[in-house]
Small multidrug resistance family-3 protein (Microbacterium proteolyticum), 114 residues
Amino acid sequence: MITARIVILFALAAVAEIGGAWLIWQAVRENRGWWLALLGILALGAYGFIAALQPDTNFGRVLAAYGGVFVAGSLAWGIVVDGFRPTVWDYIGSAVALVGAGIIMLAPSTPGAE
C-alpha cells in the first residue's frame, strides 16, 4: 500500500510540476496569454504540497527520487502534449532515472543510516 501511495503521489506531483512549467512556457515562449502563467504558478504551488505528502520524512530523499520521475514524466509530457519524438537514448536515460528513483525510495533501510 505504501508503494502505491508513493507512485500515485509522484505521478500527481509530475503532472502538477511539469504541467505548471508547461503553462508558464506557453505564456512566455509562445505568447499564449499571461493567464496561463498564473495557472502555471498555481500548479507549481500544488506540486510543492503534493510532494510534502510523501510517506518518507526525508526531504532530500523524496526530491532526489522525484528527479527520476521528473525526467521520465517530462519526456512523456513532450510525447503526449507536444508531439516530441524521443530517441532510444531518451528512453534509456529515462529508464536509468526511474531505476535510480526506485532504488532511493524502495530500498530497505540500513540501521543507523537515518
In short: Residues 2-106 form one domain. The mean pLDDT is 94.
